[in-house]
Amino acid sequence: MADIVAMILAGGRVDDLGVLTFLRPKSALPFGGLYRIIDFPMSNLLHSGIERVGILSQYRPFGLMRHIANGEPWDLTGRNRCAVMLPPFKGRGASDWYRGSADAILQNMDFINLYRPELVLVVSGDHIYKMDYRNLIRFHLEKKADLTIACTEVGQEGSPRFGLAEIDDEEPRGGRVLQYAEKPKESNLGWVSLTIYVFKTDLLFDALQANARKVSHEFGRDIIPIFLGNHKVYGYKHRGYWGYTRTPDEYWRASMNLLGGTPRINLKEYGLRTNMTHREIRDRAPAFVGSSATVEDSLFYSGCRIEGTVIRSIMFPGVTVAKNALVKDSILFFDSTVGEGSTVCRTIADEDVNLGTGTEIGDVAGELSIIGRGTTVPDEIRITGGVSVFPNLNNEAFEKNLYTQGDIVE
């Protein structure tokens, strides 16, 4: 395989996710009862044999830095292997907060040039998919491309949020990119960019420098058009599952794709790795399911204690569901507690949430309810569907009605 450095775009918050990204970047969002979303590209890199990785972080980076650590969970430690966090910096040269995805790469060209790679692989840190990047790189080299964009075929629903391409039918793996539009309001282009790019290093550097003095600094809006006008651009057609979790509903649906007799996301096939020291996963006791418990079509992990009823739900390590409580169609992050006699439906509860006894959260049908990290919901409170509760709140905040986006109440 060609000499290559990978750069992961992992610094964004994503406003659409609301309270779930108040205190973390989207790439660090828990997923699947055990993992973080960034574990998908990190594991893909591991299985593709790519061993030099830079991770571009900006928004509230501590949790992501703690999770990545030194890269050891993905075998990225050693003389010629590394996973390096690359936050913005101040120095003698021109540097500042990242002004966009392209500017983030430009500010870290010294990291790339340290290894003098032939190619640079740029990937998003917040998508859910399995890909062997070696196939993408092989395609790029065989076509003698200057830029290759990985794409997947999608319907028109939601397409204005994506970069869209027209790819010719040169062969089943892909072909030349004939047109590209970044987040068009209307388009008949049939392939959506996965924000996975393979660049020739010298041409990438030239394009980034040419764009440096402009107002916008994004790959889709600014860098790809430079390549389309001057270089060979190919589209690689990805045929497998691809999960985009920009909104709570999309995140919830992707999570539910882990459940059922034939789940759309089979984690066993993904070979997913994670940091087992983050949130002390490896040090927790085995899960406990009491004699009064009922568990149906759900995922739960070490440290969980279940004495109530859990149906079609996902529970991260340390979750407690008390007797006579019901959790249905919900996702409970690390160390959250559901009190005795409570009902939780179509809800996402962030880390360290404490739901008091007799609470009713969410509705069987309708919009999701979201409870922010570290919040304690008092006993006997009802929170309706579609409500987002802020992080780190206590009883006093509920008494003063200083707690929510949306309608509540009772």
Structure, described:
By secondary structure, the chain is of the alpha/beta class. The chain has 10 helices and 32 strands. Helix 6 (201-211) crosses helix 7. The longest helix has 12 residues, at 219-230. It is elongated and about 65 Å long. The model has no long low-confidence stretch (mean pLDDT 91).
What is the oligomeric state here? single chain
Strand percent estimate: 25-35%
Compute the gyration radius: what is it?
22 Å
Q: Can you give the mean pLDDT? A: 91
Q: What percent of residues adopt helix (DSSP H or I)?
A: 10-25%
Compute the number of helices. Answer: 10
| Ends apart, CA distance between termini | 62 Å
Largest sheet: 7 strands, mixed
Provide tags for this entry.
410 residues, alpha/beta, seven-stranded mixed sheet, six-stranded parallel sheet, 20% helix
Quick summary of this structure?
With 410 residues, the protein is α/β, with parallel strands linked by helices.
Helix and strand topology:
Elements: E1 4-9, E2 30-31, E3 35-36, H1 39-47, E4 52-56, H2 62-68, E5 82-86, H3 101-106, H4 109-115, E6 119-124, E7 127-129, H5 133-142, E8 147-153, E9 163-167, E10 174-182, E11 191-200, H6 201-211, H7 219-230, E12 233-238, E13 242-244, H8 248-256, H9 267-270, E14 288-289, E15 294-296, E16 299-300, E17 305-306, E18 309-311, E19 314-315, E20 320-321, E21 326-328, E22 331-332, E23 337-338, E24 343-345, E25 347-349, E26 354-355, E27 360-361, E28 369-371, E29 376-377, E30 382-383, E31 388-389, H10 395-399, E32 404-405
Parallel strand pairs: 1-4, 1-6, 4-5, 8-12, 14-17, 15-18, 16-19, 17-20, 18-21, 19-22, 20-23, 21-24, 22-25, 23-26, 24-27, 25-28, 26-29, 27-30, 28-31
Antiparallel strand pairs: 2-3, 6-11, 7-13, 8-11, 9-10, 9-11, 10-12, 31-32
Helix pairs in contact: 6-7
